[in-house]
Write a structure and sequence with these properties.
Elements lengths: L12 H8 L6 E8 L4 E10 L2 E12 L2 E8 L4 E11 L2 E9 L6 E8 L2 E8 L5 E9 L3 E10 L4 E13 L2 E8 L4 E11 L4 E10 L4 E13 L2 E8 L3 E11 L2 E10 L3 H4 L1 E8 L2
Parallel strand pairs: 1-19
Antiparallel strand pairs: 1-2, 2-3, 3-4, 4-5, 5-6, 6-7, 7-8, 8-9, 9-10, 10-11, 11-12, 12-13, 13-14, 14-15, 15-16, 16-17, 17-18, 18-19
Length: 276
């Protein structure tokens, strides 16, 4: 296993997972089963207001190749093939959504002890090319994330970030939206025994001169049950409780409330994930 700075998406990932992962204000049901042939089948249904969305995913793993086939209720099929360790530290990902002929995409990821690189491009005549690179160590890392539209000849995305990790503390700073916004985040493990952690994120947008502050925490009630809570400066509060009743099977209840209009905008979500 390569120990290094990781990919650009790893910058600030811990606090993003704490504040936003598994938060769901809709009703969602996900069930995963495994066939004797080694195929994992996942059925997911989500109710958003009066709209019901669903998909079925078939996943097959053979040695270092993983193939995913997702059939959605919007009459599209997403095919993803991942080749892990095609060469030391290298991962390649190919995806295609039918019937969209311009949706093909290929991505290459490379991890090294002192660098992490990811590049992707659409398989079209005038593709958008994405590149992200990180240099450093698992303690201090800095990187950039850019996208270039070959048709217009313009950069559609220019981001940069730095990440610092020390024992139970992770701090990150990112500059996004071509320099229009800056984001600072902080993640601290308070008690490793109970997986207790706190995190905060501060965002400032220069064009609108607006600030958003989000703080959150998590705590394990027991080895199988975790609670999370967060609130932001706009008065939106969110909480969830997640219980793992068998390995890979989770039951999650989450709720979100606008504290400035409690009687109008309270939402409660239910997510059930079964993976026997």
């Amino acid at each position: 296993m390569v120990k290094g700075p990781g990919l650009y998406t790893d910058i600030g990932k811990k606090v993003r997972d704490l504040l936003y992962k598994d938060r769901n204000s809709d009703h969602k049901l996900s069930i995963t089963t495994h066939s004797p042939a080694g195929v994992a089948i996942t059925s997911t249904g989500t109710k958003k207001g009066d709209l019901l969305l669903g998909d079925v995913t078939f996943q097959l793993k053979q040695k270092n190749i993983t193939t995913d086939l997702r059939v959605c209720t919007d009459n599209t099929v997403l095919i993803t093939a991942t080749v892990d360790e095609a060469a030391p530290g290298l991962k390649s990902i190919f995806s295609f959504r039918a019937p969209d002929q311009n949706s093909g995409k290929i991505e290459l990821q490379y991890l090294h002890d002192y660098a992490g690189i990811s590049t992707s491009m659409g398989l079209t005549q005038n593709p958008t090319v994405n590149f992200s690179g990180v240099i450093g160590t698992n303690v201090l890392a800095a990187g950039t994330d850019v996208s270039f539209d070959t048709k217009s000849g313009n950069f559609t995305k220019i981001n940069a970030g730095v990440n610092f990790t020390k024992d139970d503390l992770i701090a990150s700073l990112t500059l996004n939206d071509k320099g229009d916004s800056v984001n600072a985040s902080y993640y601290h493990i308070v008690n490793p025994l109970f997986n207790t952690a706190v995190g905060a994120e501060v965002s400032h947008k220069f064009s609108s001169k607006t600030n958003t502050i989000t703080v959150g925490t998590q705590h394990s009630l027991d080895p199988l049950t975790t609670v999370k809570a967060r609130v932001n400066s706009a008065g939106i509060a969110n909480a969830l409780i997640q219980h793992q009743w068998t390995p890979g099977s989770f039951f999650t209840i989450s709720g979100e409330v606008d504290t400035k209009a409690i009687d109008k905008n309270a939402k409660v979500g239910l997510a059930l994930s079964l993976k026997p």
